[in-house]
Amino acid sequence: MSNLEANRWFTEISDRDGSAFSLRINKKLDEIQSPFQKVEMFETTDFGNLMIIDGCTMVSTRENFFYHEMMSHPALFSHPAPKNVVIIGGGDCGTLREVLKHPDVETVTQIDIDEVVTQMSLKYFPELCESNNDPRATVMFDDGIKYMREAAPESIDVIIVDGTDPVGPGEGLFNHAFYTSCLNALRPGGIMIQQSESPLMHMPLLLEMRDAMKDVGFADLQTLPFPQPIYPSGLWSATMARKGEQFDGFREQDVETANFDTEYYNVGIHHGALATPNFMKRAFDK
Ligand code: SAM
């Protein structure tokens, strides 16, 4: 639920969490009702541009780096040599840009169901789309659930599920059938990573996701908490699942010598994200 109030604050009221979050806005820039969802754009006074999908905050200019870097670099540096990457969702193209910073990645295929999200991002977040024309990138518009169901077995090294909450078109990205498709499409040792909501506000959903990933046969899981200032509670997470093998650290040396810039991610941040807070550990161990 959201409303643009007379005093020019955009407020996302999160009924399920009993909380709300506001950003002061200058003006509304755009609104398109796509066949899948309502996509709105605002210009804020302090966070740059802001994308809202079906009333939920998605991306702002000022802070999207936390999310996009944590959705990409931990998984890519945990894999020994990722060459073929698939992004499900991710239509704002911020995750795509981060993945393409890895010079040894050979192909990245992004499948978002809604072309309107990418059209809006091209217009209002051009910096996130600056790598869309990289020859290694393929940007498609289709249902990611169907794409994964039909993907060739053992053809992908890293799958990044950068989807919306488990409502609307994103609902089917959170169940056993989808995780089975992902497992089948990964090569041995391959890694799937999915945004897994707020550990503080949505622990039952996070536990369901982890259980489902284990049930379908992923060998090992890591849930990485990270700050996400504009999402409910400000604390968010991504869960990584590995096919056939335990996680075995990450390529620290390669992070240190990486020839690209990040705003948040580094070796220390990756180590910190692997240190599970006690309230999460207790919930996972139950
Ligand atoms: N990074 C931001 C975040 O997590 O809030 C933005 C996420 S946004 C890019 C999530 C994307 O998932 C949307 O563009 C939406 O169209 C897409 N999506 C939802 N369900 C999908 C599905 N079944 N297949 C492919 N993409 C889907």
UniProtKB/TrEMBL annotation:
Swiss-Prot/TrEMBL keywords: Polyamine biosynthesis, Spermidine biosynthesis, Transferase
Domain of life, source organism: Bacteria
Binding site for S-methyl-5'-thioadenosine: 37, 112, 143-144, 169
Keyword Plastid set for record: no
Transmembrane segments: none
Binding site for spermidine: 68, 92
Listed InterPro entries: PABS, PABS_CS, SAM-dependent_MTases_sf, Spermi_synthase, Spermidine_synt_N, Spermidine_synt_N_sf
Active site: 162 (proton acceptor)
Class of this enzyme: transferase
GO molecular function, one term: spermidine synthase activity
Family (UniProt): Belongs to the spermidine/spermine synthase family.
Subunit note: Homodimer or homotetramer.
Protein name: Polyamine aminopropyltransferase
Organism: Pseudoalteromonas phenolica
Lineage of producing organism: Bacteria, Pseudomonadati, Pseudomonadota, Gammaproteobacteria, Alteromonadales
